[in-house]
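Worked example (supplementary).
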Amino acid sequence: MSAEEKYVAAAYLVIFAVVLAYVVIIALKLQRLERELTELTELARTKQEERRAVAVG
Amino acid sequence: MSTWLRNNRLAALAALAFALVTASIALVFFYAPVDVDGLNQKIFYFHVAIAITAYVCFAWGGWKALRVLWKRDEDADLESYVAIHQGVIFGALTLVTGSIWARYRWGHWWEWHEDQLVLFLVLFLFYAAYFMLRFSVPAGPRRANLSAVYALFGVALVPVSILAIRLSERFIHPVAFDKGGPNMAGSQFFTFCVSLAAMLTLAATLYHVELAGKRIDVRLRELREALQ
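After joint prediction of all chains, the assembly is encoded as:
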């Protein structure tokens, strides 16, 4: 591989790496959002059960 | 527009970005001829397209910032922030790919006497500082207004950066477009246009993905406050 080819490959690899890093960051964020949503769903269910218990009691 | 397309706009945009990026890479390496600049010229197709995309992102961020101040559009603040974030990512890519090109062509990574390079770096650093300003102020209308004013100041640097190379008397940075049109063969110009469309579509996809994530984040915070 000539020096010129190495520079061209490096430029394209940088672009690919940045886009890949961006996708990884977005994936991590999605995982965090999913965890938060699960937590909030649990919280909403607990509140609903508490309200039902008060209504029955 | 079909119902599927209307409901899956983001997926369609992502698919278009993927198709255009694939097509542009194929055109760059198998269709566009190698000119006097040698194989190193292949960097140009993406480097210039990425730089133009960065300018478009900054301009879009500026337009949304104007809407924050003018129409008091609350959603526009988040849109302006995401557009500027995209602009900084594409700006960083412009600087890195440009430096790689310069290392081979000029023998060094950076040229401080080159107006366009320095002005682009100033523009990039100006918008990088936007995040420091934004996150030093608590969320609310004050932060939205301050961020919008700062974003609008930066937009003024965009035409200066683009015109610098045309106004400069001494430069070594190549001029791809001048008053006479594109300084390249038809096949090279076509490849460049596809690359530009690919980068713009990719930026639009990333913009919408990030914006959707930020909006979900805001809604979840509101939901948490309502439940507690």
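Two points are worth noting when inspecting this output. The CA atoms of residues 15 and 50 of chain A lie 53 Å apart. The interface with chain B takes residues 2-5, 7-8, 10-12, 14-15, 18-19, 22, 26, 29-30, 33, 36-37, 40, 43-44, 47 of chain A (CB under 8 Å).
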